[in-house]
TrEMBL record:
This is PGAP1-like protein. Residues 396-415 are annotated as: Disordered. InterPro entries: AB_hydrolase_fold. Residues 396-409 have a biased composition (Polar residues). It comes from Actinoplanes campanulatus.
Amino acid sequence: MAEPEITGGAGGVSADYADLAMLARGSDDLARTLGRVAVDCHAVAADPDVLASAVLSPVTAARFEAALVEALDGPGGLSGQAAEFGVRAVGLRAASASYEATDAAGAALIDAVRWSAGAMAPVTLPAGIAGLLITDPGIVTGLIEDPGSFQRIITDHPGIVDAVVGGAPGLLGVLTGGGVVTDVKGGADLIAGLYPDGTPVVTDVTDRFPDQPRGTVVPGSLGDIVDGLDYRNGQVPGGTPDRIDVKRIVDPDGTEAFVVNIPGTKDWNLPFNGFNPETNDLGTNVRVLGGDVTARQHAIAMALREAGASSTDPVMLVGHSQGGMVAAQAAHDRGTADFDFNVTHVVTAGSPIGRVDVPDGVQVLSLENEHDLVPHLDAADNPDRPNWTTVTFADQQGSAESNHGTETSYLPAGRALDQSTNPSVTGFRDSASAFLPGGRDVRMEVSVYELGRKP
């Protein structure tokens, strides 16, 4: 596997912006300090004792006054230095704000272009398809003879998904009369209305599903964290109720930390099929993509409470696909009635969470396979922020399912991170020591919970 691309985190661009802002604050402080010293020193020239000494020794007093003026107001003097640092602070602050504004404007422009393409799709799409068939009729024949080639094409070029998803709000806006849907979140929220959510139900099933040794390994590395997610994901095949696990890590001094493993979507139900008691369904995907709080999020909060977590204990949420989406949304809602827990860390694998406003106090590590289509379903890159590290790796398995799998794709990438010396990765790893006790003499309890909902 080639070296991954790592953005954000301690070594990211926004960390540089933060450094510029910090340097600006330091320059401001220094300018004020030098200015105060200069004012105090100017007062010395008018001191009564200095003026009295001028009568006794005019020449010496004149030399003193000249030296003082030179030190304060001459080239390189304190007054000039204070002004220079003040100007530098303004420049640094302006540069930081300008860079950040440019990045934000670029993202907004991409959204606008995709929206416009979607709005024009009823006119341009039929003509585009006709033109393609005329110029290259063999493409249809090729897809008929080898349907799997379509997966290869789209997983080799996942930007197609960004374009389609990013254009969908424009198309929905046209179909609904315009103005109703303006962005991806709005489009998802509109569709989410077709899926009733319900009231969460949580059942402790730890005794019914005793963990194998792999499920009870005390995590000591990022690879172990992803391995725990892969294990839980494998224990919840399609067609079975939603289940998560909560790991309670207790240090010798009594401090506690909690790791929650949240598998991805297992029920691909379509709208209009009535109420669905399973929380890991397609409806939850759409609702959380629209920025909504879901029954699954509330159920995870209930499970944490049953596992003994308090509102102050540090919590790491680890999720695959939809599990990562719910984890990011829960982090957004941390400390509120929607998720009253101290979420300090989030780890996602193959999750479209680029539009979730995760608080600065939450450290995020996002793993994304370049050939996985699912992270593109929000049509947005993850933000480059000091608290958010995104690791993008290339692992083409040949099919959309394998490219998205925890075992086939994300577990090897997670294990590889244990050897990384990238400052963003090591920064995240160091910050997560409460959840990576390694050789510490800790006690760990694993609880398994079945999640559901009722009307």
